[in-house]
Design brief:
It is built from 12 helices and 11 strands. By secondary structure, the protein is an alpha/beta fold. The chain has a single domain, classed as Alpha-Beta Complex (Amidase signature (AS) enzymes). Strands 1, 2, 3, 4, 5, 6, 7, 8, 9, 10 and 11 form an 11-stranded mixed beta sheet that branches. Helix 8 crosses helix 11. The chain is globular.
């Protein structure tokens, strides 16, 4: 285990304006955000060694500073963001203080670990295939994947642009919502939450203890939510959608980093090298076919999650796996995770994870997927529902 900061951390905190909605709050940022005069390493020391310092702050960082927040550090992440485990072979695995001896979840692992430890008021991450939602769940935090495109990614390292979305994590629901007021750009679709769907196929992916706790949590929240309606989000099964994300994501990450990998032969940690090798073999024909199917899935998801509708499902299928979990079991965990996270990814939709309670002493997250542009409604829902969280199960 390790701390949550990268060895190439900020030389000094970036002090925000002396006023604004985030004045007095501290933030840390994932090691992918452009900061003037600093190099972003993306979790890999060889990429860092070849990177050029940013000439200016990326938009998200500048907005935080202008709103009064002080940025105090750069956090560890999985290499090239290609994992949901939070393990980095070069810099160590950030400690999950809410579940000692267990992984923090990735790839925004350092950001989640820092927020959970109280080292900052909130932390920026990114979410392509679950990289904010999963560590939020495993570390007992509020986390959001924003509507695709609502927060500009210019000046921030890419993974797979078709799915990349900015997100953040916080221990406090109030701070969580405040950050949204600063970072979210136009294209909001302001509607009240009028319809609640319960994703039966999502709950079927969860361990029994996790599903039981979340059902109990939803029952406690009944007075603050519309009457629930059970549905199957993916009538033909979630694995087909998961595979679409896998193919498109792999193809795009190779387009972004393939040349670097071939020319520089970077050192990779366990699992990352294998995923990069597999990504290099995805053909244009395969990705074209996947993108055509993706278009149909996106239409189906948008038709289901119309403005005013939210879908409840587990943020993660289980509590945080132990640090010494064998690689084969972590691969199975990753597959299960992607069955849940692929829905919002394919739809380009916002999703919040809220800390519902604990099972076996470990955090469990409850998620709500909202409509395109419904980010503010989800942030407000997180605040409303925060008083119902905290159920414990042995």
């Amino acid at each position: 285990m390790s701390g949550f900061l990268v060895p190439h951390d900020l030389k000094a905190p970036l002090k925000g304006a002396g006023h604004g909605p985030l004045a007095g709050l501290s933030a840390m940022v994932k090691d992918m955000y452009g900061i003037a005069g600093e190099r972003a390493g993306g979790g890999n020391p060889d990429w860092l060694a070849n990177a050029e310092p940013a000439k200016e702050h990326c938009g998200a960082v500048q907005k935080l500073l202008d709103a009064g927040a002080t940025i105090t550090g750069k956090t560890i992440c999985d290499e090239f963001f290609y994992s949901v485990a939070g393990i980095n072979a070069h810099y160590g695995t950030p400690a999950n203080i809410r579940a000692p001896g267990r992984i923090p979840g990735g790839s925004s692992s350092g950001s989640a670990a820092a927020a959970a430890a109280g080292a900052c008021d909130f932390a920026l991450g990114s979410d392509t295939g679950g990289s904010v939602r999963i560590p939020a769940s495993l570390c007992g935090l509020y986390g959001i994947r924003t509507t695709h495109g609502r927060v500009a990614t210019r000046g921030i390292m890419d993974m797979a642009p078709s799915f990349d979305a900015i997100g953040w994590l916080a221990a406090s629901a109030g701070v969580f919502r405040k950050v949204g007021g600063v970072l979210l750009d136009g294209a909001a679709n302001a509607q009240p939450v009028q319809r609640l769907l319960i994703a039966d196929d999502g709950f079927a992916e969860a361990d029994a203890a996790v599903a039981s706790l979340l059902n109990e949590t939803l029952a406690a929240m009944a007075g603050a939510l519309p009457k629930p309606q059970p549905i199957r989000v993916a009538p033909d099964g979630l694995d087909g959608w998961r595979d679409l994300v896998r193919i498109i994501q792999a193809y795009e990450i190779w387009q972004v980093y393939g040349r670097f990998v071939q020319e520089k032969h970077p050192r990779f940690g366990p699992g990352v090298a294998e995923r990069m090798e597999a990504a290099s073999k995805i053909t244009a024909a395969e990705v074209d076919a996947a993108r055509k199917t993706h278009a149909g899935a996106r239409e189906q998801i948008h038709a289901l999650i119309a403005p005013g509708t939210v879908v409840a499902l587990p943020s993660a299928p289980c509590i945080a796996p132990k640090l010494d979990t064998p690689a084969a079991e972590l691969d199975s965990y990753r597959t299960r995770v992607m069955r849940l996270t692929c829905i919002a990814g394919l739809g380009g939709l916002p999703q919040v994870s809220i800390p519902a309670g604990t099972a076996a002493g470990c955090p469990v997250g409850l998620s709500f997927i909202g409509w395109a542009g419904g980010d503010e409604a989800l942030l407000g829902l997180a605040v409303t529902l925060s008083k119902y969280c905290g159920i414990e199960r042995a």
